[in-house]
UniProtKB/TrEMBL annotation:
Taxonomic placement: unclassified sequences, metagenomes, ecological metagenomes
Alphabetical list of Pfam families matching this protein: SepRS_C
InterPro entries (alphabetical): SepRS_C
The protein, known as: O-phosphoserine--tRNA(Cys) ligase C-terminal domain-containing protein
Domain O-phosphoserine--tRNA(Cys) ligase C-terminal: 99-129
Length: 205
């Protein structure tokens, strides 16, 4: 049988599911990239959506600045959520906040939709997750937790994204199967960049 199939290893022939060279398409890898934490309530989803909206509209506003993203009920309390940058002489959001996860030739990149990356987006498979989307989902979830536990009665809930060095830094989860595949193929996962977004949840007065 080995000669017939030109198999180099009898184990690969007997147990192909364990030993044969396995392939994952860009599409399959993209399907294994997701957000680790997401809001658990309709209000939380609304908060995440509005954090995204504010950052898209005001991301390059000169600081110090703050913009209201949400004011309304959450777990029976009235809350406000602000996107803020208290430091002077910078912008509301850092340069990499709109970077998007895309799978190209078996590697995962977090890159901006700019001319220099045009080919990567055209030939690759976008995951439809930007750094901003993943951070907003995480911030909303964190604000939900702080509100539900009554933490925000005592102090504001501040959530920050700073310099991203891996998917975990921005609430992005890559399934183990994809990680192993990428490593075994000597491909890369390059998710990094300065995001610098601060979100503050507080009790409405």
């Amino acid at each position: 049988a080995m000669i017939l199939h030109d198999a180099s290893d009898v184990r690969a022939l007997s147990f192909p599911q364990f030993y044969a060279q396995w392939e994952l398409s860009n599409m399959e890898i993209a399907g294994m990239v997701s957000m680790e934490a997401t809001p658990g309530t309709a209000e939380g989803a609304e908060i995440a959506k509005n954090i995204v909206r504010v950052c898209e509209e005001k991301g390059s506003a000169k600081s110090p600045c703050e913009f209201l993203a949400y004011r309304g009920p959450l777990f029976g309390r009235d809350v406000e959520v602000w996107v803020t940058e208290p430091e002077e002489n910078t912008l509301l959001c850092g340069p990499a906040y709109l970077n998007e996860m895309v799978v190209h030739e078996g590697s995962i990149f977090g890159i901006p939709r700019k001319k220099e990356w045009e080919t990567t987006f055209e030939e690759g498979v976008p995951t439809d997750i930007r750094f901003l989307d993943a951070f907003a989902a995480f911030a909303a979830r964190r604000i939900e937790e702080a509100t539900e536990k009554g933490e925000m009665d005592k102090k504001d809930c501040e959530v920050k994204a700073r310099i991203v060095r891996s998917g975990a830094d921005i609430n992005v989860k890559i399934e183990e199967v994809a990680m192993r595949y990428i490593t075994s193929r000597k491909k890369k996962i390059d998710i990094r960049g300065p995001v610098f977004i601060t979100v503050v949840g507080k009790k409405s007065l």
